[in-house]
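Weekly sync, protein design subgroup
Attendees: M.S., D.O., the rotation student, P.L. (late)

Item 1: inverse folding check
M.S. brought a backbone from last month's batch and wanted to see whether the design step gives back something sensible before we order anything. D.O. pointed out we never logged the input encoding, so this time it goes straight into the notes. Structure tokens as presented (255 positions):
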């Protein structure tokens, strides 16, 4: 089984590629959280995967919350440990995300066997303009090649050197900014909004509610997945003033 979280489609793209090749079922963390579905039974030598984007060189809040409640019921011979892997999608690098994932899984008695970094198009529009179309195409070619290698490694139960997983300087500095930040107060819908409700529907943490046919962010914090702003059909959602002229990004798998 592969647990995945995605905001703009990159991690879904990776999870689907891996799942299709290895015959593993995909489980949407967003749906699982909304349905309060946290108990799963492992059958035979089934693998356990986690595919999600790197946020501020760390684990997205919704993924951390999900793992904290996750229960895996194993029906394996005594002494046999499941193969547990992570595929961490990112625009720059994963920093100490693998170490964070390892620590989260250890609390659920799920030792992390291997973690893989997968670079994809950048889309954190709240800080910078997403990757342009031409560069997206070039990155996708590289992504697919890397995915082929990752799938091969997972199929062979390849184990990485866990001693190399560290909380990097970037993670120690940047991740607390995410934990205490991820504010919603700068989000708003401009006059192009037609009240389609897509943002409300796709918000993974149900922070968006429609009032007078316009989206309102009802909590002070969200996951900052950027799904609402990047996937708005009319590009009507903004984050302050800087996003008014910036392009949007949505992985084609969601279109």
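Designed sequence read out in the meeting:
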């Amino acid at each position: 089984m592969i647990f995945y979280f995605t905001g703009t489609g990159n991690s879904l793209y990776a999870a689907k590629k891996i799942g299709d090749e290895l015959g593993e079922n995909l489980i949407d963390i967003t749906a699982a959280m909304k349905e309060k579905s946290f108990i799963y039974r492992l059958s035979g030598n089934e693998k356990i995967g986690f595919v999600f984007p790197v946020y501020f060189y760390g684990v997205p809040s919704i993924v951390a919350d999900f793992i904290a409640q996750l229960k895996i019921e194993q029906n394996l011979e005594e002494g046999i440990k499941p193969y547990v892997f992570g595929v961490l999608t990112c625009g720059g690098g994963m920093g100490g995300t693998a170490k964070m994932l390892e620590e989260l899984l250890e609390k659920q008695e799920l030792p992390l066997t291997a973690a893989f970094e997968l670079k994809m198009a950048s889309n954190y529009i709240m800080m910078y303009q997403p990757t342009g179309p031409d560069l997206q195409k070039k990155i996708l070619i590289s992504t697919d090649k890397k995915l082929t290698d990752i799938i091969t490694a997972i199929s062979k139960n390849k184990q990485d050197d866990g001693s190399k997983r560290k909380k990097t300087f970037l993670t120690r500095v940047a991740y607390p900014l995410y934990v205490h930040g991820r504010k919603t107060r700068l989000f708003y819908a401009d006059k192009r909004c037609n009240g389609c409700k897509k943002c409300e529907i796709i918000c993974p943490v149900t922070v968006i509610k429609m009032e007078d046919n316009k989206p309102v962010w009802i909590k002070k914090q969200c996951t900052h997945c950027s799904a609402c702003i990047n996937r708005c059909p009319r590009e009507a959602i903004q984050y302050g003033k800087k996003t008014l002229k910036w392009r949007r990004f949505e992985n084609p798998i969601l279109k």
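Discussion: The mean pLDDT is 95. The CA atoms of residues 208 and 217 lie 5 Å apart.
Action: P.L. to compare against the previous round before Friday.
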